[in-house]
Write a structure and sequence with these properties.
Two copies of one chain form a homodimer. Chain A has helices at about 5-20, 75-85, 95-105, 120-135, 175-185, 210-225, 280-285, 295-310, 310-335, 360-370, 390-410; strands at about 40-45, 50, 55-60, 115, 140-145, 170, 190-195, 230, 255-260, 270-275, 340, 350, 370-375. The longest helix of chain A is centred in the last third of the chain and has 23 residues, at about 390-410. In chain A, helix 3 packs parallel to helix 8. In chain A, about 35% of the residues lie in helices and about 15% in strands. In chain A, strands 4-10-9-8-7-5-6 form a seven-stranded mixed sheet, with helices on both faces. A four-stranded mixed sheet of chain A has the order 1-2-3-13. Chain A has a two-stranded antiparallel sheet with strand order 11-12. Chains A and B meet through helix 1, strand 1, helix 3, strand 4 and helix 4 of A and helix 1, strand 1, helix 3, strand 4 and helix 4 of B.
């Protein structure tokens, strides 16, 4: 069925242009996407989205990672629905905060305690503050170009940010031991923490899996300087492993930041910490109006249990690999250079010779017109509700998109 | 019915002590309250809470202001339940974000646009960043002791915070025109914004309504310096007025921060801004994993509509006045000095001659043992689900608490 025109979407955008600066904001602003993308969605179920004009999509962005088990997963919804009449945002927490903290400590290998908040940025900011309170030192190292949130200390855009908001930060290059060594060197005896993502997942560029030597060196440098190793699992959490994803490399952080998928779309983020950090975590004041709300915590308990029970990380890896293999074969048969990087369950697809991202934009536009929501320059997310049939249907669509792209290229468009 | 022992509460606290630093954190940490207070709640409905041992309370903290219409208000729950199957946290926003932004612009007198986030701290931080982006200047003035959130730039506790996190902030004294003038003077030609709460609601001290001359002076100083007036309505919003609460003083801010009550307990905060700030708001990057979730927005639409339709601010003011008059009469009859300050719908009750808050702690402990949850040192909140009968029952309890306190004092305790 051909896609309906995005009539209502355009009407909503026109109304939004009057009452929302720029018409929309943040990472869900469709103005940063090709024209064929809808801005608004009127329904979500499993791995599917419907835009406000009723068009259906197989969704590979999955709420930017918040959807792990499928939108409206029945068991998660049931856990939330059972907690709701018992109380959500109250004058104090519900007992489930204790159960959830116990579960986190059980799941996350380095953790002996946990704290809960709302935004991923809350979690990364809290980690940085705790590391400074613990060490009594100031310098925090982070990777050039890495995303750790939208607060002034880490937002990717400079507007409204003062140099002082980023004082005592030193940048290193991801996976580059020499650059990390140099950053530690320049911190002198003032190193509070190394903040690092489990893998490189910057927008607009190829993802990079962690070099084990880099991960081990980060741990070693922290140990030598009595500094804190902070692992930002906000984007990766539960998709690669059920605890910290660097466990596979034999590297344990002191603090880890969690968010996105941990409550399958209910608003919750978390900090997990090892024993020596407990006192600093107790002293640093962190709080928010909705941080103790019980419904997201009940949803998180269910999510953590289901993810492990159902082997979700392994499932989405298999599905992601099937998608990746199919796309690689299609690209090859069309003679179009495509780079697929990062873990298969968090696909990133970028095109060779892609001047101003024209090929990626064209290809993903062809896909979205045919009911598959891919992202042209941000890593994507597979969820447990994707099926083999969804992957097969997706590959039919991407084949058509490659054919259309190949046709454009052969006619001299989208090339140098 | 006498209160059950807090057996389960104590068990939960013991378990929490192992997996949560300090046993609990932030503003909902009961360790900061007298021993008689429960930490955990197993149910909330209307204006009532039940602790994990089954004891029932009339709640005057109301989720620290997040509960405006009553916990589980049927119409708000219905609006949320209707949105949920249509999608909550998706790959893009739902149409209701546009409707909600329109409603905010309609409600908030100075606003021509709105943005939505999760924490009150998100909203105040965003306001500060927007004001710097707009003005190209750095200095932000805020009142000594005022609470605007828990991020490093504003948290009330120093641990883990660097001097640089608070660089370019200048403190003034609330309601003190001379002190505000001096702060502006010291900002020189670098004044970005004056951040101010609609009234003084610092913990541990008497609240102060705004002096109209102070409010007008803040506006005038911003106009003179082309600086931004930011009104932090997070705690006050919808309890004093349906738009900005300084409208009654004839003073309009350029930016206002909202949170807590705006979705009756669903996690949502907001920034509203006037036209000249639109471009800066567009340029500043603000986002979060759950900021576009539709269910809290649907709940907020219902909350904003009901609050105005039902005259909630007037209702809770009347109820608050009834409570205040009753307590004043009781205190007088017992010859105990009590100060009740701030707007009646946000009661603050502090005791004279209260060495180490012993009187306040004793009196509120007597109340909680009898099923009334008052706060000994933080402002409280009346909600629309409180009834005349609840106030009457509360006053029976507070009379008994005053009698017990009076008895203690006459026996020589809780005095100098």
């Amino acid at each position: 069925m051909p896609r309906t025109m995005l009539t209502r979407d355009r009407e909503l955008r026109a109304r939004a242009a009057r009452v929302i600066p720029g018409g929309m904001y943040g990472h869900q602003n469709a103005a940063a996407l090709p024209e064929a993308y809808p801005q608004y969605f009127s329904r979500a179920e499993g791995c599917r989205l419907w835009d406000s004009d009723g068009n259906e999509y197989i969704d590979y962005v999955c709420g930017f990672g918040t959807n792990l088990l499928g939108y409206r997963h029945p068991e998660v919804e049931r856990a939330a629905a059972e907690q709701a009449p018992r109380g959500d945002c109250m004058t104090g927490p519900a007992p489930c905060i204790v159960e959830l903290a116990e579960r986190f400590v059980d799941l996350v290998e380095h953790a002996s305690w946990a704290l809960f908040c709302k935004n991923g940025t809350d979690a990364t900011t809290w980690c940085v503050t705790i590391s400074r309170a613990h060490s009594g030192k100031r310098k925090v190292l982070r990777a050039r170009g890495a995303y750790h949130g939208s607060a002034p200390w880490c937002t990717p855009r400079p507007d409204g940010v003062l140099p002082e908001d980023r004082e005592h930060q030193i940048l290193y290059d991801y996976n580059d031991v020499a650059s990390l060594d140099a950053a530690v060197e320049s911190a002198g005896d003032d190193l509070a923490a190394i903040l690092v993502s489990p893998l490189r997942h910057d927008a607009f560029r190829d993802m990079e899996l962690p070099d084990p030597a880099f991960a081990r060196r980060a741990r070693e440098l922290c140990d030598q300087a009595s500094a804190v190793l902070i692992l930002d699992e906000v984007r990766t959490g539960l998709r690669l492993a059920y605890g910290c994803s660097w466990e596979a490399l034999g590297v344990r952080p002191d603090l880890s930041a969690w968010g996105k998928a941990i409550a399958n779309g209910y608003p919750l983020s978390a900090v997990a910490g090892s024993e020596p950090l407990r006192d600093a975590a107790r002293r640093v004041y962190g709080t928010g109006s909705f941080w103790f709300a019980a419904v997201p915590m009940a949803a998180s308990q269910a999510t953590l249990e289901i993810a492990k029970r159902d082997g979700v990380a392994e499932r989405i890896q298999r599905l992601g690999e099937k998608l990746r293999e199919g796309i690689a074969a299609q690209a090859k048969s069309h003679g179009i250079g495509v780079r697929q990087t990062g873990p298969a369950q968090m696909p990133m697809i970028l095109f060779d010779e892609d001047i101003e991202r024209a090929r990626g934009n064209f290809w993903t536009s062809e896909a979205i017109k045919r009911g598959v929501y891919l992202h042209p320059w941000h890593n994507m997310f597979v969820c447990a509700a994707h099926t083999e049939a969804d992957i097969a249907r997706t590959l039919e669509v991407t084949e058509e998109a490659f054919a259309a792209l190949s046709n454009q290229i052969s006619r001299g468009y989208l090339s140098r």
